[in-house]
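User: Run a structure prediction on this.
Assistant: Running it now.
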Amino acid sequence: MRVRIIEAALGVFADAGEEQPVIDDFIRAAGVARGTFYNYYKDVPQLLADTTNYLDNDLIESIEGEIGKGRSPAERMTLGVRLWLRKAGSDPAWCSFMAKARSTGQGIHDSVGRDLRNGLRAGVFDYPTLEAGFDLVVGTVRAAMIRLTIEPVGPQYDAQIARVILQGLGTERRMIDALLRLDVPELRRPARTIA
């Protein structure tokens, strides 16, 4: 039932634009009773957070399917950032919705956190704290997504953002250059959209 409400919420949020949808909009779209809605969500902000988490985790699942566990932490970070931003660039509605999110999904915390820790242990990253490294990655990607919603960017924007993140994480320039030459795979498992 929770997924049914979230799936309906995707359409409601997409249709609402800048207007704030109300609970009745979600009840109507999901075709559920008011009590059923309240069994899962107390208010719209809680549903918004859960919907954002749902979309975050969905894209992480698609990206993980492409970059897998056999790559180095630096390769995973590079390809993950580039795939995320390519999704953002190709899906403006999704990008706009996700750029406004105030939270990140558990999948992002797990994946980015694991790669940051493993990269530090391997000596390819050098950052002061896990929180600072995480905020550098997530904050830079979110800022890039906001830019994608307001102005056109060049075809290598995803590589430029990956370069800045890797530099911020303390990766050596020669390694960054090699990482940016990696072929970026296509997502075979399409990620959900908001529309």
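The mean pLDDT is 93.
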